Amino acid sequence: MEIHHISIFVADMNRALYLFNNILGFELAWHIEEAKGKTLSDLLGIKNMVAEIAYLSSKTNRVSIELSRMIHPVLETSNSGFGHPGTVGLSVSVHDLDSLHERLDWKAGPR
Hints:
There is one protein chain. The chain is an alpha+beta fold and 111 residues long. The chain has a single domain, classed as 2,3-Dihydroxybiphenyl 1,2-Dioxygenase, domain 1. It has helices spanning 13-23, 38-44, 97-106; strands at 6-9, 26-36, 50-58, 64-72. Strands 1-4-3-2 form a four-stranded mixed sheet. A hairpin with a 5-residue loop joins β3 and β4. The longest helix is centred in the N-terminal third of the chain and has 11 residues, at 13-23.
């Protein structure tokens, strides 16, 4: 068995794309600003779902990321804290921590 991709629901697509593309080096494979339809709704079990979806692939490993921002229904952002059910962690291996820290300090990304 092999993991195909990881889905992450985000509140701000621009900031998420900036992080995964500009900071972490993923390449944007495709981006749909308004994905909808019965198949998508049935697949995820959310009636009349509409979402913005971006799919990114990594040049250096076999991990792909699917970013989804819900348009309908509008869901509230929850800040329940790390470790609660539904929260996730992202671990990365960094070869030059000082360089990454500098990039994060100088490029806060779109707000």
